[in-house]
Write a structure and sequence with these properties.
The complex is a heterodimer of chains A (about 300) and B (about 300).
Chain A (H helix, E strand, L loop, with lengths): L1 H17 L6 H26 L8 H15 L5 H23 L4 H19 L11 E2 L7 H24 L1 H11 L1 H6 L4 H27 L1 E2 L1 H4 L2 H14 L5 H19 L7 H15 L3 H14 L1
Antiparallel strand pairs in A: 1-2
Chain B lengths: L1 H28 L6 H19 L3 H22 L13 H22 L14 E4 L2 E4 H23 L1 H11 L1 H6 L4 H26 L8 H13 L5 H21 L7 H15 L4 H14 L1
Antiparallel strand pairs in B: 1-2
The chains are: A mainly alpha (about 300), B mainly alpha (about 300).
Chain lengths: ~300, ~300
């Protein structure tokens, strides 16, 4: 069972990496979107799932990555070279925010993250160097779909591998202890703030790189696109629908949400119903199966065995 | 100076109405009601519908909006609230996310019914103003202030003078003790949800007379309401009023005395929310209590 699952993941990764050889641009774009979603969901899951710190402010990191890439590319940097820098800035920012915010527990932390992300969005649409609410355009001839595709797929694989490694490591066990009972974790010597900061920084860096790639692919960014609250929302939604705190959950969630998005957008009558679908899924999952589809799968598995 | 003070006062009345709804539900059920933003938005559209269909003045319309949203809140409690009632001292992240889902559904409902176009309510007095102590004040803002004060007085009388109010306060202070002394906590929770939602509806309907709105409207006001109840110490009535005054004073002061652009004002109040949560999680009243204790020791 374990080996079969591993082979399946390997096959999926190989398929995604060799897809440009035999697929058209349309489906490749869908795969790019899926990889983007997988990165966001799996990276969020490091803090939100493993450590149980639900942040509704992850669009901030996408925006930081995207703006770093565009602003430096406009100064004649190679766009791909800007990616690690965006990751670094996002990680530093995550620590600056995390230091005070991680003193807050549970929902108070969540509310604080909404406040921070919204403050950044408003600021980015007002100050001058970000181009205000009209946004920024990448310099011409920086567009290279194939390079971007491989980078995005590669980053998705790396993110999932990191998540799998974290879950198994002492780091992951510390995060699990924090999620289950933060006082008990502190009592046995887990420095909860330090571990939360590390998970926050790691996931912020991954999300920021994805944000940079997003900017290169779409060639244009604005506060309304990369700092959008709905982006934060779908980032949270994917792991929750799939199964929070697991490796496969965020990937399933990303698959479900990005498929839904493509399908809904292609049916005119349903184009305006995605909030309804998102909200409905969120309510149903939280009320009836807080472990998401992975939890549902396990439940069915137990029924079949019994 | 006087104009800043008056404008602060007017804004504070509205802010307090907005925040009380959130504070009641938090107090009784230990739930952070993210759907509050959606209910405020629906309140705005309800006032709009009453005004455009039946020509009902938005302030007269409050008489319809308030009971309507009370019922809506009770129904919301029956549908989801009851399943997520927090047992512990701190709210659960699950309840937050469920109500977040409710907010999204409400938003989508408004998109379907009223489309995403910007709407506004234009009455005969929308552009009129009156002079108070030499300061020109918009007639809608003054009416909003009066209606806010009226609803706050109503709430205060309800909480202080009636059995229901005492029961609400009892559950807020100690749920278990209230249960032991025979308070039906389920029913009180339902009523608290109804009251909270009625106040959100009133606040939304009043906001609609002051500014244009879309189904996305409400998010920035939700954050401001949070900011206020955090400043106010989450559950005390006077605390909320104090928080509303502080936020309104900050916003009006910034606009009047600094060159911070108005578009950045929201960023300031969101940042204040963050600072308030981190720096004084027990609210301003606790800060004063701390000073008093320190002074008493000396």
């Amino acid at each position: 069972m374990k080996i079969a699952a591993r082979l399946l993941w390997l096959a999926a990764a190989i398929f995604a990496l060799t897809a440009p050889l035999f697929l058209e641009r349309g489906p490749l774009n869908d795969l790019w979107n899926l990889a983007f979603a997988v990165i966001l969901a799996s990276a969020w899951n490091l803090l939100g799932g493993f450590a149980g710190q639900v942040s509704l402010g992850y669009s901030a990191f996408i925006g930081i990555g995207a703006y770093t890439t565009v602003l430096l590319s406009l100064k004649d940097w190679n766009p791909f070279v800007t990616l690690p820098l965006g990751a670094l800035i996002a990680a530093i920012f995550s620590v600056i925010i995390g230091l005070p915010a991680f003193r807050l527990r549970g929902p108070y932390f969540t509310i604080a993250t909404i406040g921070v992300a919204e403050a950044i969005r408003v600021t980015a649409s007002t100050v001058e160097f970000t181009g205000g609410s009209s946004g920024l355009r990448m310099p011409a001839d920086t567009f290279d779909f194939n390079a971007n595709y491989f980078a995005m797929i590669g980053l998705a694989v790396v993110t999932v591998v990191i998540a799998a490694w974290v879950k198994r490591s002492a780091f992951g066990r510390a995060l699990a202890a924090i999620r289950q009972d933060i006082e008990a974790a502190e009592a046995v010597g887990v420095n909860s703030t330090r571990f939360k900061l590390a998970a926050h920084a790691l996931s912020a860096a991954l999300v920021a790189i994805a944000g940079g790639l997003y900017a290169i692919n779409f060639q244009y960014i604005s506060p309304a696109s990369v700092f959008d609250f709905r982006l934060s929302l779908s980032i949270v939604l994917m792991p929750i629908i799939g199964g929070v705190g697991t490796i496969a959950g965020p990937i399933f969630g990303a698959l479900i949400v990005s498929t839904l998005q493509i399908k809904l957008l292609s049916i005119p009558a349903l184009r305006d119903s995605f909030l309804f679908v998102y909200g409905g899924l969120l309510i149903v999952v939280m009320l009836f199966e807080p472990q998401g589809f992975v939890g549902l799968g396990r439940r069915i598995g137990r029924l079949v065995h019994a | 100076m006087i104009s800043v003070l008056l404008n602060t006062l007017l804004a504070a009345g509205l802010y307090a109405t907005m925040a009380y709804g959130l504070a009641i539900i938090y107090g009784v059920m230990r739930i952070i009601n993210l759907a509050h933003a959606g209910v405020m938005m629906l309140g705005a559209y309800a006032a709009y519908a009453l005004f455009s269909r039946f020509g009902l003045d938005p302030f007269v319309g409050l008489v319809v909006v308030a009971p309507l949203f009370f019922v809506f809140g009770v129904l919301m409690y029956a549908a989801v609230g009851r399943r997520i009632a927090g047992a512990g001292a701190t709210p659960s992240i699950e309840s937050l996310l469920v109500l977040f889902g409710v907010w999204l559904v409400l938003q989508n409902f408004a998109y379907v019914v009223w489309t995403g176009d910007t709407q506004s309510i234009l009455t005969g007095y929308t552009m009129k103003s009156i002079k108070v102590a030499g300061v020109r004040l918009g007639v809608p803002s003054v009416l909003v202030f009066l209606a806010s004060v009226g609803s706050l007085i109503f709430l205060n009388v309800l909480l202080k003078r009636t059995y229901l109010g005492k029961a609400i306060r009892a559950v807020t202070q100690n749920r278990d003790a209230a249960l032991l002394s025979g308070v039906n906590a389920g029913r009180i929770s339902a009523i608290a949800f109804g009251l909270g939602s009625a106040f959100a509806g009133i606040a939304g309907a009043m906001l609609a007379t002051l500014m244009a709105f879309t189904p996305d409207f409400g998010r920035s006001f939700l954050l401001k309401a949070f900011c206020i109840i955090v400043l106010g110490g989450m559950e005390s009535v006077t605390g909320v009023a104090l928080g509303a005054l502080v936020l309104a004073a900050l916003e009006n002061g910034l606009a009047a005395y600094t060159s911070v652009p108005t578009s950045l004002q929201d960023a300031v109040s969101f940042a204040l929310l963050f600072i308030a949560l981190v720096a004084f999680p027990q609210g301003l009243p606790s800060l004063f209590a701390r000073f008093e204790r320190r002074a008493a020791i000396r």
